[in-house]
């Protein structure tokens, strides 16, 4: 045993040689990725390169065909793993918000802690109201998702995930469906979370934002991690020609 | 007030021969009223049971196990492809005799009453339609909404009960109302096995009073009022379930 490796804390998320196919098409072809506690990781890359699929595999929404994913020591794809325990650790925010349209903002946030964690209502409601304030939506407690703008809905979705007190938040292109002017209000919220030390994994097309908040950037293409590096190095000195071509196109 | 009304109907009979006996004769009025109550009771029981059967059936149709799905589909097909009266006869005359006890005189006595058979029959009949209706509603709920619930830690059943079913109910509500209106009207089929509901007691009354045309009017209007009342109730529920931004 290497003593230095033993004293280092293991990564919160550890993906090893992850493989995933849809109808015979391999979309993840052996992906390795580590996320340390408190780290903000951005995954960027062309559409269809498997970024979203990787996120969905990390919280067990999609099964993997090979390799392994561990979250805080839990083997995500071991059938014996307690899925509730896993999903308490991992919050996920989707491109299309996916709020529960028949419930008010407050109820959307309170539902899972009440039904899944079975926590006392008063405590859950206090936490939900604090989260609504945190995402700057005071006064919208009793509004329905259909009455909110996309940016507001996405902030409710973030609050809903946070209400479960996850250890890591996965953001799957959360600004891709938003108007340009509402993108920033969502990014502000994520930036604050990152600053508070929340572990975040973001799939994003917002390069400026990735450069600003990410500790580490992964670039995927055709189901592979082509290159990864600390954010500053990644954007200033990309090595791989595919990364260089991609950045030249989007920056 | 009631007495004045009764006198007016009795007088109508004297003057014109139009014999609306259920409105002035206390015995026939009570008999008819009991029939209406029984219809309402039968309909209420069937509505609750058939909605539950529909919710469970639709859940089982999404089951991982193929044999469970096949079983539900077989039930739906069997029920939808046979007339409700044939089903009622099958249960009452086909199964009923096997579920009987013998009394002190050695005679067979059915253990399950005609009323119970009718409730079972109409509940499962409408339950099959409700299963299909809910299934269509569930299919219209975006898969991502269910995934969001699962990613928050809900089990599949939890996501179904708290997220998918409430949304599916709203989507399929108009079709569900339709099924339930048909159910209320279907209760008159219980006449065929002598359950004393509206039509059956009316038959008793017109046999005694020989006022067939009048009683036909009374029966028709009774159902119009019953179903209108139910529709008003459903419209209220639909309004209460309505949510901004959800198209229904």
From TrEMBL, chain A:
**Family matches, as InterPro entries:** AAA+_ATPase, ABC_ATPase_HisP-typ, ABC_transporter-like_ATP-bd, ABC_transporter-like_CS, MetN_ABC_transporter-like, P-loop_NTPase
Q: Does the keyword Membrane apply?
A: yes
In which broad location class does this protein mainly occur, judging by the first location in its UniProt entry? membrane
- Name its cellular compartments: Cell membrane
Q: Name one GO molecular function term.
A: ATP hydrolysis activity
Which Gene Ontology cellular-component terms appear in the entry?
Answer: plasma membrane
Membrane topology note: Peripheral membrane protein
Write down the superkingdom of origin. Answer: Bacteria
Name the SUPFAM superfamilies on file.
Answer: P-loop containing nucleoside triphosphate hydrolases
User: What family does this belong to?
Assistant: Belongs to the ABC transporter superfamily.
Q: What is this protein called?
A: Amino acid ABC transporter ATP-binding protein
Q: What is the lineage of its organism?
A: Bacteria, Pseudomonadati, Pseudomonadota, Betaproteobacteria, Rhodocyclales
């Amino acid at each position: 045993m290497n003593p230095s490796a033993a004293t280092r804390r293991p990564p919160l998320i550890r993906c090893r040689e992850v493989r995933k196919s849809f109808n015979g098409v391999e979309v993840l072809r052996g992906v390795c990725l580590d996320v340390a506690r408190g780290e903000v990781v951005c995954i960027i890359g062309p559409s269809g390169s498997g970024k979203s699929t990787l996120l969905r595999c990390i919280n067990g929404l999609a099964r993997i065909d090979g390799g392994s994913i561990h979250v805080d020591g839990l083997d995500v794809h071991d059938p014996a793993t307690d899925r509730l325990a896993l999903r308490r650790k991992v919050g996920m925010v989707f491109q299309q918000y996916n709020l529960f349209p028949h419930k008010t903002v407050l109820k959307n946030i309170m539902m899972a802690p009440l039904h899944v964690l079975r926590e006392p209502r008063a405590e859950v409601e206090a936490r939900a109201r604090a989260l609504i304030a945190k995402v700057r939506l005071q006064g919208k407690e009793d509004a329905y998702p259909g009455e909110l703008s996309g940016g507001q809905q996405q902030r409710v979705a973030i609050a809903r995930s946070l209400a479960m007190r996850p250890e890591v938040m996965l953001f799957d292109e959360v600004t891709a469906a938003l108007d340009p002017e509402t993108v920033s209000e969502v990014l502000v919220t994520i930036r604050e979370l990152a600053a508070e030390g929340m572990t975040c994994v973001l799939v994003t097309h917002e390069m400026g934002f990735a450069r600003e908040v990410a500790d580490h950037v992964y670039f995927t293409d055709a189901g592979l991690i082509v290159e990864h590096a600390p954010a500053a190095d990644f954007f200033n000195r990309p090595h791989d020609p595919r990364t260089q071509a991609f950045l030249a196109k989007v920056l | 007030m009631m007495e004045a009304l009764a006198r007016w109907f009795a007088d109508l009979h004297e003057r014109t021969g139009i014999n609306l006996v259920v409105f002035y004769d206390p015995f026939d009025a009570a008999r008819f009223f009991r029939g209406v109550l029984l219809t309402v009771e039968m309909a209420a029981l069937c509505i609750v049971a058939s909605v539950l059967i529909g919710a469970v059936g639709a859940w089982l149709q999404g089951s991982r196990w193929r044999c469970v799905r096949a079983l539900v589909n077989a039930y739906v097909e069997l029920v939808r492809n046979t007339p409700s009266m044939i089903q009622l006869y099958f249960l009452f005359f086909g199964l009923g005799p096997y579920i009987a006890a013998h009394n002190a005189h050695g005679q067979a006595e059915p253990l399950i009453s005609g009323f119970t058979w009718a409730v079972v029959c109409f509940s499962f009949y409408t339950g099959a339609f409700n299963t299909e209706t809910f299934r269509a509603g569930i299919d219209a709920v975006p898969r991502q909404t269910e995934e969001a619930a699962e990613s928050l830690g809900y089990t599949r059943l939890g996501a179904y009960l708290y997220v998918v079913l409430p949304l599916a109910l709203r989507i399929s509500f108009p079709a569900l109302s339709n099924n339930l209106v048909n159910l209320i009207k279907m209760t008159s089929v219980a006449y065929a096995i002598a359950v004393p509901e509206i039509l059956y007691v009316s038959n008793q009354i017109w046999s005694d009073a020989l006022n067939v045309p009048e009683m036909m009017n009374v029966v028709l209007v009774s159902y119009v009022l019953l179903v209108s009342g139910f529709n008003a109730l459903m419209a209220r529920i639909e309004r209460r379930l309505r949510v901004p931004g959800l198209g229904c």
